[in-house]
């Protein structure tokens, strides 16, 4: 590996290694997001799909399949399936969260309307289910349909857990497994399943995706308090304004003195927020080391992801997946 | 058949004939709408599922399977699948249409919020995909996932066709196939597929469901102008207020004189509606015989549905399905 390659982000190295596969995925996505009768469908989908998302989830499927020696055509279908499920959930999330910005651009619900986002999301879900039937593997379909159910369940749980100061780290973990890790782990697991590897390796791929997804989401939740709008392409403090109980808040609430408790009661539980409250929330979290503790948890999940890789073949892709686990957390260095 | 039975509606006779199967479907629905982690899911679902809907779609699956001699367990799963898809689309429709009443009760989006309706709908879609994998038939999964895509596409098409006076009867038919007939035809078709009948009979079941669904939706659209709130459990004139181009309106627009054209331009295209406009719309449609012409179309589709049944076994269920096709249109006698 030359110096140039070593300097690249692991995600970019995976993309370069899997470039031909990824091009096939992009072609298939464009083909399947078409609609003969309803031109609004490809308009809305293209706005999101072509906004320069990282395509991390389909890359994971391609990487898992290739790492396991798969030579057939269907990792392309499964990677496109995973991206369609992800895109559908983004469309619906932006409606639910009333978001106005995604990947640094106006959201579809803002550019068109909530109706279009709901219905085009439904279309992409249905398209994903059509795609996942094509490899003809019952097990693949069970994994991906189970992941879809876990995602929706996690989103509903997040909805009801929001504003509730009694939310524990265990509930947070369930929400995170639903909203993020379920699709990561399904993405890696199906790659191994179509490659026909043994159960220990399928389980290792699941564990890698699950742990990577949890680390990724913890970091995303940290960035929502610590990043800048230019870097993360999304409004800082969104989670605070939406009164979401993310990991650093949960940790700070657990350690709160009476005055801090009253602050959280007012801003999160009752939703009475004023100018300066976001800064105050960040100061309280810093005082209790809540951000650092959450980052330590993310590092622990990244370590678990890397450990799982030992069951898989020695291969350049495996090294990139290990680096990816480190990089996911390094985003908040 | 006794006099009592003859006097019953065909739908009730089907329900009685298939009562044991239907009970198993209801049990499975209750079991699968549960959620260990998110109690809001069964709350929202139960509100809709237990509101006394007709369960017409799962009945069609059970009827098709039994008519074709199926003796296995999986017609129950497929009937529940079909009802879950239907329930998910109702939840999302009520968000998209901003409806406040469904089956004579407040809608879920009113009782909870739009967020819950979107996410619980997603959960039910995912649950339906889990259920449809259980019989282990690739063909069944393709039929049902294709139906889901057609439904979503029809809804998006309806969204963009609303308010557009250039909407033709051909576009209306596409919308209706999407929003209603696709699930009816999938419901009947999969019943034949799991029973293992020949292609001609599978096709006949598809055609019956497709034509029945189209007749059903045309009548529903007529009732939106002609029924009463107490009878149809839904606000009369909803489609007019939502500026939907349904069949009687399309027929009246095609025959409009200059003054009537101006009326449709104002009320449907521009959405400027005043008191009395609904009555005026109904008077214009009556003047051109638009309601009668749409009813004639519905009768024609019902006749096609009945004709398709001739390819299927002579059986009491077949007679009830024939009567059902008549009854669907007789609702507006």
Task: Tell me briefly what this model is.
With 333 residues, the first copy, chain A, is mainly alpha-helical. Chain A has helices at residues 3-7, 10-17, 19-32, 40-49, 56-67, 74-96, 108-111, 114-133, 138-161, 169-195, 199-226, 229-232, 238-241, 247-254, 258-269, 277-287, 290-308, 316-330, and strands at 101-102, 105-106. Helices cover 74% and strands 1% of the residues of chain A.
Question: How is this structure best described in words?
Answer:
Chain A has 333 residues and is mostly helical. Chain A is 74% helix and 1% strand. Chain A has a two-stranded antiparallel sheet. In chain A, helix 11 (199-226) packs antiparallel against helix 17. Chain A is globular, with a radius of gyration of 20 Å. Chain A binds chain B through residues 35, 37-41, 89, 92, 95-96, 114-116, 118-123, 125-127, 129-130, 133, 136, 138, 141-142, 145-146, 148-149, 151-157, 159-160, 174, and chain B through 35, 37-41, 89, 92, 95-96, 114-116, 118-123, 125-127, 129-130, 133, 136, 138, 141-142, 145-146, 148-149, 151-157, 159-160, 174. Chains A, B: Belongs to the FPP/GGPP synthase family.
